[in-house]
Amino acid sequence: MADGTPTRGRRGGGGAARRAERTSTKIDHARFITRNIPNYEILTEEALAIIEANADVVLEEIGVAFPENEEALALWRDAGAKVDGDRVHIPKGLARKLCQTAPGSFTQIARNPERNVEIGGRNLVLAPVYGPPFVRDADGRRYATMADFEKFVKLGHMSKWLHHSGGTVCEPTDVPVNKRHYDMLLAHMTLTDKPFMGSVTEPSRARDSVEMCDILFDEGDGKGLNGRTALVSLININSPLTFDSIMMGALDVYAKANQACIISPFIVGGAMAPVSVMGTLTQVLAEVMAGVAFSQLVNPGAPVIFGAFVTSIDMNSGAPTFGTPEAAQITYGAGQLARRMGLPFRSAGSFNGSKLPDAQAAYETANSLNVGLLSGVNFMLHACGWLEGGLVADFEKFVMDADQLGALQKLAAGIQIDEEAQAMDALREVGPGGHFLGCAHTQANFKAAFWKSDLLDYKPFETWVDEGCRDTRTLASARVNKLLGDYVEPALDQAKRAALLAYVAEKKASMPDAFM
Question: What DSSP string describes 185-200?
């Protein structure tokens, strides 16, 4: 696999010394977040009841479309829905009843059991950006390559606060469309030991994802995954109210294999949903209920996540906007609806519409990340690296965002109230007019008292000038190079590696290249 690691200058000791230095580098990984703070609930009981009632009306009277999918239509017909052409009219209460078999939380396994994540309840799992065809680095914006993809996977592995490797961190356009999912999966399986996502661009690629996981997670008994959930995959609904056959085909594969799916409406308010918050939440709930219900028709008990990707639109340019009050209101409300259904919730991320990792990107990203924390999100895709409305995965912004995710971790921990935290001994020791820098309480607690950025500059002005007046992008670029320079590939059983490489080689050889 392409290295993608920047060339560094020579140091004393030669290659062996450098390898030994990298091998001894300790990689610190944080456990997924468990919130000790309350969720922010923006909707009243009356508002929630109205949305739920209206969503039932949408499903029954308007219906949802399952085009070019006779198998899905047959499942709905057998379940008691009225099918008219490709339109499915779901009687009031049926979708919600079917959703009840979906679990409220589940474990996604990683090849390193210490990296397993629990999705649901009070937990928050952070995953990187997903899907951009372009990347940006210090040299500018360009189409993404497989080498870029591998660099992002390495950065994700080295990032303390990221709990998940994600999926299509960028779209490697230098690899044929019908074969790139093999290389992306192989990168996630070999370059990190964190959990990852499966392919959804074709049902056969979903099957490939499951089969490769059967190889990676086999425990020596030939049973492969054996019912364990190793993949979380993104199933977007073609809003409004349309479930295309490609996504539903992938969902069918994953549900049958007990792999988790995020059932996620793709909402751009004013274009793919109403301009009002209540109208959008009604559509979101109707679409999620229909999608989750369908997954349970395929396999009752299959793990799913209530998804809500929501942005508004600039009515002058038609461009999506991020970090807005309306998007926050919808995210808060969707979190309440997900909890009432007893389902894990996916939303928010490092969303912004900026072309560069600048002040606009920072403002909009900070708004969206904090909304995600407070709305009760359990799985946050796009938590770092997002730029230009999702068209670009940016290396510098990846590490900027990943650094700030540590602040979310500290905030989510809540406020300790034990005797040590009360600090009465410090108050007595210092008294009026003193300072706390040298007191016993400070000396005992200063190392862990405050969250500390690994990126931002807090040095005196004179020191900052002496070091070259580096702005945050410059510091981030240096950190990208440091993380890639310190990267060490996690150990993988050589027999499994060989089996994965053989699987990929055989599959690629069985088909001609296709770039569309």
Answer: HHHHHHH--S-B----
Joined together, the tokens standing for residue 508 give 């690629």
d(CA 299, CA 243): 18
Tokens of 53: 């009632």
How many residues are listed for the chain in this entry? 516
Look at residue 1 in the predicted model and tell me its pLDDT.
35
Span 356-370, pLDDT tens digits: 999 999 999 999 999
Residues of the chain with pLDDT under 70: 1-26
Judged by DSSP in three states, 361 sits in helix
Instruction: For strands 140-143 and 134-137, give the pairing.
Output: antiparallel
In this prediction, residue 26 carries a pLDDT of: 67
In this prediction, residue 24 carries a pLDDT of 41
Distance, CA of 82 to CA of 401 (rounded, Å): 47
Rounded Cα distance between 39 and 374, Å, is 5
Q: Which H, E and C letters describe 270-319, residue by residue? A: CCCECCCHHHHHHHHHHHHHHHHHHHHHHCCCCCEEEEEEEEEECCCCCC
User: Cβ–Cβ contacts within 10 Å for residue 6, how many?
Assistant: 11
pTM of the complete model: 0.93
Q: Any residues with CB less than 8 A from the CB of 111 and at least 6 apart, and which? A: 189, 193, 216, 217, 492
**Distance from C-alpha of 300 to C-alpha of 303, rounded to nearest angstrom:** 9
Name the residue among 410, 490, 485, 388 with its Cα closest to residue 151: 485
Residue with tokens 């219900």: 293
Instruction: Outline where 304-415 has alpha helix (H).
Output: 325-341, 359-374, 395-412
On whether the CB atoms of residues 493 and 475 are closer than 8 A, the answer is: no
Q: How far apart, in Å, are the Cα atoms of 499 and each of 40, 98, 350, 363?
A: 47, 39, 36, 46
Give the Cα separation of 354 and 388 in Å (integer). Answer: 5
Q: What span, in angstroms and rounded, lies between the C-alpha atoms of 210 and 199?
A: 9
In the sheet with 87-89, reading across from the earlier edge strand, the strands are 64-65, 87-89, 82-84
